[in-house]
Amino acid sequence: MKLSSTAILALAISSITATAYAETQSQAFTPVTVKDKSAQSEATGFIDGQSLSGTTRNWYSNEDKQRDGVYEYERHGQTLEGSRRINWVQGTILNYSSGFTQGTVGFSTEVAAYNAIALDRSREDIKGGSNRTLAHSNGDAVDQWSKLGLANVKARFSNSTLTVGRQSYSSPQVDTIGNRALPSSFQGASLKIGELDNLAFDFATFDRVSPRMEQSQQKFRSEYGNRSVESDHIYTGGITYNPLASLTTSLWATQAKDFWNQYYFGASHVLGDSQVLSLTTGLNYYKTQDEGKKLLGDIDNDTYSLSFGLTHQAHSLTFSYQEVNGNEYFDYLHETNGIYLANSLLSDFNGPNEKSFQIAYGLNMAEYGVPGLKFNLYQARGWGIDGTHYNGNGGVEGKGYDGIQSQDGEHHYEYGIGASYAVQSGPLKATAIRATYTTHRASEQQSDGSINEFRLVTTIPFNIL
Question: pTM for the full model?
Fold first, then answer.
């Protein structure tokens, strides 16, 4: 990994600062031991352990492109343009989970029905549909639609579980993304081995993704590469290890067949007492190299982020530096949240050879007698974007990331402000309301463009059984 002088200096300064405060957060070594309890031995049975629950989410977004940016849509055979796009969708999930059967090996099942209702159906507003509102080929919104978001069978032995079917999954490279009215999910098999304290193993293989706002399943695509090429299979595996009570580390490897091999290392450490002053240090590192048929062309990319967060009672201040070392984008799988980088915001700040810095402030009003109410604001800047050395050397139609050669010294910035509230008690307990306003401004060839966006999202959980 190539750490810049900026990152090394920041790490040194933070280490010196941290030593000035008492280590209230335990720094004790935690040995790896075999768990003395078996989750399967406490199984209550298929029926007795069942549950029926769900959530309903009202998701509203209002985007306004700036500096002559436009969205296009069709009406009566004409292509029309407009700078504003509005999406308003109600997404509801009804989830049934059985308990595990008793015995040495227990079996259970999980089934979840997803439903979406387009509350704004104006063709002019939704601009032909996107991953926000499902639309017909003529650009009209699909009024309402449903699908099986989850459908799987699980087998558990001791503290280890095999899941087969459509499922949610979480890892630094294949992660369910839930930033729309409905989340994505994956078709395949996963195994979680949890027999040891402080050390867990995960393995999975998937061949299809169920997108957030579509009814069908798809093969996997790249988020930033040529969307006409697909990967037939994803293989992933990882280790999570907590050597200290205050330190979490993880190491993962993922192969997107004929796209890339991608390796990840992450670490998070907490030092001190947040009532006085605590320091949270986070490191995320990805190494990506082309694989197999190289459908996206040559890829050789090292990307990392380094963050330092200071917390004093209600207040937190975080500094994050991120750097891409490669002549192509740092890329990840479409319809996943497989980007655990600190500066992945409205923009991912992942351009070729890009460097970026973010400063963020958070306020937790629980310290002032209003639990559940939080505010945050941030600003991030990216610079040095240079795709002029990219040649692709293969890939579909010659280059998997064709077009980035025009990015020469590009730069951009983003700032945002948000407020959220979670109901603490009563029949609406855990209901969450979040409002955010984000502004992004970019130089001419930077890929994200200039845009303002306002989002208002309300999520209400409910239990039936």
Answer: 0.93
